[in-house]
Specification:
This protein has 685 residues and is α/β, with parallel strands linked by helices. The protein has four domains: 53 residues, Phosphorylase Kinase, domain 1 (2-Layer Sandwich), CATH 3.30.200; 193 residues, Rossmann fold; 214 residues, Dimethylsulfoxide Reductase, domain 2 (3-Layer(aba) Sandwich); 129 residues, Barwin-like endoglucanases. Helices cover 28% and strands 17% of the residues. Strands 5-4-17-16-15-6 form a six-stranded mixed β-sheet. Strand 12, helix 14 and strand 13 form a beta-alpha-beta unit. Helix 6 packs parallel to helix 14. The chain is globular. The N and C termini lie far apart (57 Å). The model has no long low-confidence stretch (mean pLDDT 94).
Length: 685
């Protein structure tokens, strides 16, 4: 008989959808959204709807494996199950635990704990399976800490500095907005449940403005699409602030009473008259003025700031300036007015703090610089690398540098994952991990801030194990476990939430934060900064490399690579946007066809490129060979390769990450994927 089970989706998406999973004979046969949920509304994205394909694919890791041959022939073109079969053999969990524990112990004793590095991200993990027993293990080993800065670090730092992560406008309240500005975000592919509320607002007469280098499906529906050039969001935001001040639309009383640092912000903005911002951002000046006027005249405008603006050298200042706009004009205090960044701050808890676990005073390695760190002498060198909750070969910048570092024969690498990823090709030991349908967890959405229970609905695939079981066993084998350690899901939930809320969560399946699910900014919620004000020049932001709100142009970009050539030699800006096929790189193994690089017709004509032709996208860091898609969905001077693709999706095994520099953003030391500048040429036949 078919059965239906309920759970919550924890994948890296704002929505945290409540799910209904249909089972037959213990197998998942269907997944849909809960019909009674006010946001999910009975539908989910196609990625999760097809999750059974991921659950039962041929590339699921079903048992622990050990490398049997050296890494000398590891290349991205060789990645895949055939390589695994030739270079690995199955082993028992006991053998795997012994191999790992013995190596970690030996490296700690010989080189020190900092010779061990956990490499993880965890955007698709909940509150119990990320930074719980895993962090406990590495803390107690005295391992190097990882700065997880590949995504949201610049935006998070800016948001924390200005507002203390004050919760933003809830998705359902977009229906009450009279102007919606979607800046560097594509909800059709990253948070689909915002889209119906935007559509409802536009049916009610709201205007829609989209700032994006691509003409996305939402941009095609917009009243105004501004095809902003990558890396110039700061210029446009400052020009808008300058225009608001100069044209009498700044609320000076609000600024004096509720903000600090507005003098600095205004001075920086004064450097950006509209005509200068239009030239640098490659947006028509009249279109910019129209946008600014629409915003000034709106009563309940909302800005949906995505993570696109942060992925460049100006990223932190850009997000800070975008988030400052509603405060300058005081577009708060009404339902549907204000901004939305991430609403994860609606929940103020930390699993390790709840369990009284303290991080050691050890060195920190920036996630974007792992390749650099592995290749160069350090004291101590990284000798053991434990990769989990991420696929770094497909997601980190400077891909070729990272792969060269992973290929070191003296580096012991563990890859703990659900499927055989590109990163698994470099492993010494591969461990099978459970999916969210096979283990317990908690997830709070960072768009709709509900906290939901993640329940196992099917038995683990093969010998797959959840994170906490594996890290708990390694704690035991390394003699690092303590009698009073909290280990079970029930214990961790109680520590995180308190007994009363944990019990309520078990009964109801979800909780809402203390501020509620639909707070009004500056009425129901206020800044959580030290001063209680909106801090435009927060002390945490003043260490910006170029200066807070100071624009750095292409030719001034700092670099970690001496091979960088002038931007004039590589005139096209490369972006790697999300798609409807993957969550970061998750589900990449299910895509069979080659990826394409999208090129504007005028750029294609200038280079003799035809639609469907195989081309090379290149710069001094690498080259990607793949078919061209010639269409005007990208702006002139911009090319696009999908985010999250694997080596199998290009002709030469490299992806857009091979072209991305490992330079860091101005604030938050984040990744600068959108600073990649490239040239494109036809491949010789």
């Amino acid at each position: 008989m078919p059965q239906t089970r309920e759970t919550t989706c924890p994948l890296d998406c704002p929505d945290a959808c409540s799910l209904q999973v249909e089972l037959e004979d213990g197998r998942v046969v269907g997944i849909d959204g809960s019909a009674d949920d006010p946001v999910t509304r009975g539908f989910i994205c196609g990625k999760v709807r097809r999750f059974a394909d991921h659950l039962y694919c041929d590339e699921r890791v079903s048992q622990p494996m050990r490398r049997t041959r050296d890494k000398s022939d590891v290349t991205l073109t060789a990645a895949g199950p055939a390589y695994i079969a030739e270079h690995f053999e199955p082993i028992s969990w006991d053998e795997a635990y012994s191999l790992i524990a013995n190596r970690l112990r030996a490296d700690r004793d010989t080189f020190g704990g900092e010779s061990i590095l956990p490499l993880c991200y965890g955007g698709s993990n909940g509150r119990l399976t990320q930074d719980s027993l895993d962090a406990r293990l590495f803390y107690r080993l005295g391992a190097s800490k990882l700065a997880r800065t590949v995504c949201a670090a610049p935006a998070g730092a800016a948001f924390q500095g200005l507002y203390g992560k004050m919760p933003g406008v809830a998705f359902p309240d977009y229906a009450s907005s009279d102007l919606i500005v979607v800046w560097g975000n594509n909800p059709h592919h990253s948070g689909v449940h915002l889209t119906p509320f935007i559509q409802q607002a536009t049916r009610n007469g709201a205007a829609l403005v989209v700032l994006d280098p691509r003409r996305t499906s939402l941009a095609a529906q917009a009243d105004l699409h501004l095809p902003i050039y990558p890396g110039t969001d700061l210029c446009v935001a400052l020009a808008m602030i300058h225009w608001l001040f100069e044209n009498g639309h700044a609320d000076h009383d609000f600024l004096e009473q509720h903000t600090s640092g507005h003098e600095l912000l205004r001075a920086r903005a004064a450097e950006w008259p509209v005509e200068r911002a239009a030239e640098v951002s490659r947006i028509d000046e009249a279109a910019l003025r129209s946008f600014f006027s629409l915003y000034a005249e709106a009563t309940t405008p909302v800005v949906r700031c995505g993570w696109g603006p942060e992925r460049n050298r100006n990223g932190g200042s850009a997000v800070a300036a975008i988030l400052a706009i509603p405060a300058v004009a005081n577009k708060f205090g009404r339902r549907g007015a204000g901004f939305t960044m991430s609403n994860s701050g609606a929940w103020q808890f930390d699993i390790l703090r709840a369990a009284a676990e303290q991080p050691p005073n050890t060195r920190t390695v920036n996630m974007n610089l792992v390749g650099e760190t592995l290749l160069h002498e350090n004291d101590p060198p990284i000798r053991s690398l434990f990769i989990y909750n991420c696929n770094p070969v497909a997601t980190l910048p400077a891909q070729n540098k990272l792969c060269a570092g992973l290929q070191r024969e003296d580096l012991f690498t563990v890859v703990f994952d659900q499927v055989f990823t590109d990163s698994a090709m470099f492993a010494d030991v591969i461990l099978p991990a459970t999916t969210f349908l096979e283990h317990d967890d908690l997830k709070c959405g960072y768009g709709y801030p509900r906290l939901g229970v993640v329940r196992p609905v099917v038995a683990p695939h093969g010998e797959a194990k959840p994170n906490n079981e594996v890290f708990g066993e390694l704690l035991q084998r390394l003699g690092l476990a303590k009698e009073d350690d909290l280990c079970t899901p029930e214990q961790l939930q109680a520590a995180l939430l308190g007994e009363q809320q944990a019990s309520q969560l078990r009964d109801q399946g979800e909780l809402e934060p203390a501020c509620g699910l639909r707070p009004i900014q500056m009425l129901d919620v206020r800044p959580r900064t030290p001063s209680g004000k909106i801090e435009f020049a927060a002390e945490s932001l003043t260490h910006s490399q170029a200066g807070l709100y100071c624009y750095v142009a292409d030719e001034e970009t700092p670099t970690n690579d001496s091979k960088r050539s002038p931007s004039s030699s590589y005139p096209l800006a490369l972006i790697s946007p999300s798609t409807g096929r993957t969550v970061n790189s998750t589900f990449g193994q299910l895509i069979e066809e080659l990826a394409q690089v999208t090129v504007h017709p005028s750029d294609a004509e200038a280079r003799g490129i035809e639609d469907g032709q195989h081309v090379r996208v290149f710069n001094p860091l690498g080259a990607v060979d793949l078919p061209a898609k010639v269409e005007d969905s990208v702006a002139v001077g911009v090319v696009s390769i999908p985010k999250g693709i694997w080596s199998r999706h290009t002709l030469n095994g490299q992806t857009s990450n091979a072209l991305s520099p490992d330079t860091l953003s101005d604030i938050g030391a984040g990744a600068c994927f959108n600073d990649a500048r490239v040239e494109v040429q036809p491949l010789s036949t």
